[in-house]
Amino acid sequence: MDDERNPLTRMLALAAVLVGIGGGAWYVLQRPAVKPTVPAPVAVPVAPVAADPATPQYPVEAITPPVATTANEPLPDLFDSDAYVRDALNALFAHPQLAQWLVSEHLLARFVAFVDALPNRKVSTQLWPAKPATGAFFVQESGGTTVIGPANSARYDAHVAVLTGVDTAAAVALYLRLYPLMQQAYRELGYPQGHFNDRFVAVLDHLIAAPEPTAPIVVALNDKGSWAYVDAPLESASAGQKFLIRLGPKHEAAVKAKLRELRSALSAARP
Length: 271
Known about the structure:
The protein is mostly helical. It contains 10 helices and 4 strands; from the N terminus they run H-H-H-H-E-E-H-H-H-E-E-H-H-H. The protein has a two-stranded antiparallel ribbon with strand order 1-2. Strands 3-4 form a two-stranded antiparallel sheet. Strand 3 and strand 4 form a beta hairpin. It is globular, with a radius of gyration of 19 Å.
């Protein structure tokens, strides 16, 4: 799997706060004596990003604030916003470990770049808005193959609970409050005519469409010594979809339910 140490659950937790998506680190417990063969990935098309339209598909102005907001409160400069954003996230999540999960600098700029990169095959670690999850990646032998162990899903319990427990209305209100800064970050990322909310909705759709394996997932070590899905379509999935798959069926379903709520709120009256 690409980006084996990628923090899916973290990204999802942070993205939920800003309306969207955290991850998990993949750690090799031990190498099998004989390394199974991993098939070459097949090309799986990723939904293309619409060309930067002059008129947004999902204008944030059409989103009715779900709760009272401080819309007139002055925002800090984008690159001096970390303390402001950190305080807002702590108020939204009220989780004692949140401060330990987040990176220390450029939270909003990283978040915007991270969201934009999720449909890609890989996401650079420099874009992660949160730190990797701790704990070992669990695999087990089953019928002569190596599969992801059921205990692996438990590594993400706390992060999924934080994400799914966040108040969607409060998350959307915070998103609207911070949106001018995220829009600035998105345009500085290389989309001078783009609209971050359009991109966010498209990425949410992409994540919601992630495969939902029900049988144990067979893995094998690739040439780089990292665990990879033996199933070619799964291995060819985007980084964002792999993040969700790694959570396990129960957690993936719960996170997708939250993402659908967020998608509905951010797309206003559009389908």
